[in-house]
Amino acid sequence: MESKNSHVILLVIIAILTLTLAAMVGYMFVVSSSGPNSGNTVATGEIQRVQDEDLSVISLFEDDNFFNLKSDNKLSIIQISAQLKYKKSVKGIKNVDDKISFNLGKIKEIFGTYFQNLTVEDVKQPDAKVKANEELVKAINEFLLSNEKYKEDIVYEIEFDKWFYQP
User: Fold this and answer.
1) 117: how many CB neighbours lie within 10 A of its CB?
2) d(CA 121, CA 128)
3) Cα separation of 20 and 1, whole Å?
4) Chain-wide mean pLDDT for the chain?
5) What predicted TM-score, i.e. pTM, was given to this entire model?
6) Which end of the chain is less crowded, N or C, counting CB atoms within 10 A of the terminal residue's CB?
7) CA-CA distances (angstroms) from residue 152 to 57, 132, 138?
8) Among 66, 99, 69, 67, which Cα is nearest to 84's?
9) Cα dihedral sign for 48, 49, 55, 61?
């Protein structure tokens, strides 16, 4: 009799564990199929762009701005006009517009330092604007997020309206 009761108890435990396992597998399928990355963007390798309504734009310079380029023997300059596109809301930051406005001077300084380290040969390259966009976005985000708890990028991209250089 005693062995019959222990077999029943073991069968009940196995049944409970089986049902629990089935529930967990079902939950994983439901959660994984309804997540934000459930679309084809990950599978096809497409880049997900931020929606326009989630971005703000600010002109970095009122007029065209000139920067000296690194040169050995003659004066070389680049004239640029740029707009900074940034996310309107970022986790951990109450007012992104205020943060950008407060740090606008430092952002302009980062621009100046970046272009002072380039030569005319660097800005002549076909991919110079793309490279400048990537490197400046990275440098500005590193600065803006240096005192934040969460590290979600604020600056999305930089658009160069003008890009003229004089050797």
Assistant:
1) 10
2) 10
3) 29
4) 84
5) 0.68
6) N
7) 18, 21, 12
8) 99
9) positive
